[in-house]
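INPUT
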Amino acid sequence: EIVLTQSPGTLSLSPGERATLSCRASQSVSSSYLAWYQQKPGQAPRLLIYGASSRATGIPDRFSGSGSGTDFTLTISRLEPEDFAVYYCQQYGSSLTFGQGTRLEIK
Amino acid sequence: QVQLQESGPGLVKPSETLSLTCTVSGGSIRSYYWSWIRQPPGKGLEWIAYIYYSGSTNYNPSLKSRVTISVDTSKNQFSLKLSSVTAADTAVYYCARALVPANGYGWFDPWGQGTLVTVSS
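OUTPUT
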């Protein structure tokens, strides 16, 4: 099973700043089969990125994904108030596993 | 656009079987994969299983012995059964559409709102 480790556990930033979230896999993720989700309290997760770097429909272009192999990154270029949430990565190249999440909080 | 809605009992007794149904609206269940994912309170996400509209299935190995997923195309619904539940199965259960690429297992979009199932006597 591929284990995904997200860092940091909590990220404290201010609106307007740039956020960089990391997702590291215990072994290579084939074909960059990695997705990112945003989850707000009391809500279902929302797909942001699939295929490591493809934005889902309706996702603002301030969200971008990059990486390959074992190291992947979600970048939010300029934080808006509605971006403060928990973010999960998920790999789907070898079965299906999720990272433990990164909480993005307002500083 | 496609919307999903979970339904089923919110309380299940230990050792019994948890049963949930997901109703798909705004589109056909045909030609897609459909999945169940769960999230224990305050914790992360765990994929349970997915099913193609034709009936082919894929299960999380850690849950496979207790899980059955099925589809009813006439009702645009798919269902989950999880047997021999314990308190560790207490979670919000989400249904979602799985987009499955060649040689891969899929990502999820959209998701239902989720339903909390508590296992307790």
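end of record. The two ends of chain B are 39 Å apart (CA to CA).
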